[in-house]
Amino acid sequence: MRWLVLCTLIVAVVWSGLALVETKQQRRELFAEKELLRVQLDELQITWGKLQLELATFAGYGRIEELAREKLSMHMPSIEQIQVLEP
Asked: Where are the coiled-coil regions (predicted)?
């Protein structure tokens, strides 16, 4: 009877130790993955900032006017060409 209790305790201690090792290993892996995701997040935030700046540059009134003049050969109408329409 005593041997059975002793063997049970030994098995429980060994199992507990193995579970602890497994848990620590999982924690290390998850921490490494978290750090990798943090680096990716930083890179994506930098890219997002660049894209917002690029959008602001391309969508600016001056840029649109410049493209209209250069690519579409558009120009501002003279005073005589402007007509105001009433609703």
From this structure: 20-47
**CB-based burial label for 55 (10 Å; 0-12, 13-18, 19+):** exposed
Q: Tokens 């329409």, residue?
A: 85
- Domain residues of the chain, as ranges? 2-74
pLDDT digits (tens, 9 = 90+) for 5-60: 999 999 999 999 999 999 999 999 999 999 999 999 999 999 999 999 988 887 77
Number of H helices, E strands in the chain: 2, 0
Residues in the chain, total: 87
Residue 74 makes CB contacts below 8 A (sequence gap 6+) with 68
